Amino acid sequence: MEMTFKIFRFDPDVDKEPRYQTYHVQAEPSERILDCLNRIKWEQDGTLAYRMSCGHGVCGSDAMKINGRCGLACQKLVKDYAGSDIVLEPLPSFKVLKDLIVDMDLFLKRVSLIRPYLICSSPPPEKERQQEPGDNKKMNEVIRCILCASCTAACPVTAENENYLGPAAFVWAFKYIFDSRDDQTLERLKQVDTPDGIWGCVNHFECTRVCPKEIPVTKSINAIKREIRNVLKETD
Ligand code: SF4
Ligand code: FES
């Protein structure tokens, strides 16, 4: 089948304004959008810029806006767009570095702010530190996060509030707040208990809709809100 792609092009070093460039690609219905992008780059236009690495929904690098919805180009099949043009744009609310490549620095900085690693002050045991039974069940969804940024980019609050921590940071906060081995629960809850933190979320659910790893992002955010109400109220 012949597919028509309209792709956002912008090189801030050269262009005054972004533009959309049209490409036509022959593709099998079972091929992915990423396969078509690669064909465009390798056979038609080597100047087209986008990120990709694993090609299989693991690295998170090819997140972009595909016909208006954030997602991974390597997970979207051509057949699901039959009969329409495919419009590819960079993740919204992120600074464009070139074409479909956005600056991820601020996003990653916000995730690292919540200290996405286990903090235990007790001396290490002889063998491994063990979680309490049930911990694993609580977090076996959030540990699937690949930091693709689709959730944060798709969130309407991100578009309105440049200081908003964003759903991906909360997914990582959830992981350590509910891990019984971590002893920073109180500090972690206090850190996100702010208007630009967890209370910036007003349940649009767009993060949950777009997450390529099917993480219940909004549910995780609401679990943190409940924990703040329960734990911080107790310690007031
Ligand atoms: Fe991507 Fe989902 Fe992680 Fe958000 S929660 S960064 S959409 S994998
Ligand atoms: Fe790695 Fe798509 S290329 S997730």
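^ iron/sulfur cluster complex. Residues 57 and 75 are 6 Å apart (CA to CA). The mean pLDDT is 96.
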